[in-house]
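For this section, I looked closely at a protein sequence along with its fold in token form, which I now present.
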Amino acid sequence: MNLKKLKRLLQIDKHSLDEEWATQSDNYAECAEAVADARRDWEQAKATLEVERCELDKKIRSNPDAFGIAKLTEAQIATTIGIQPSYKALVEDVIEKHHAYGVWDGFLTAMDHKKSGLGKLVDLLLANYYSKPKSSSKSREHTEVIERRAARRRS
């Protein structure tokens, strides 16, 4: 789902509240599934990163000379792992997947806010907030008196 479609889903057409409510649950479910997928991708990326870290650790310990390490220490191993191109690429992937998860999670929260907004708009509609103003019977009588006086003056 692209960003334009996401933003369109968050907009509320106050003149089509019935349609908005009809599609809200489907849109929410689609978004919740995307959040779950993004979280899964992030977790998989973290697991892949951990596997790469373990494999590099094993390679470094078995042949420290190949990595230019004279004295093997835990700090030296950690530093050497951190500068390996394969490890750095996986770190970037984890960061990107975490960002995607955060965006989707924020969008799911926005869908919750849309639901609340729809509820409030329905409340306003039921309270005749969008109706045209109506005058009271006293106001109508007063308006009729003024109109009659104005008509007499013209004649």
About this structure: The radius of gyration is 32 Å.
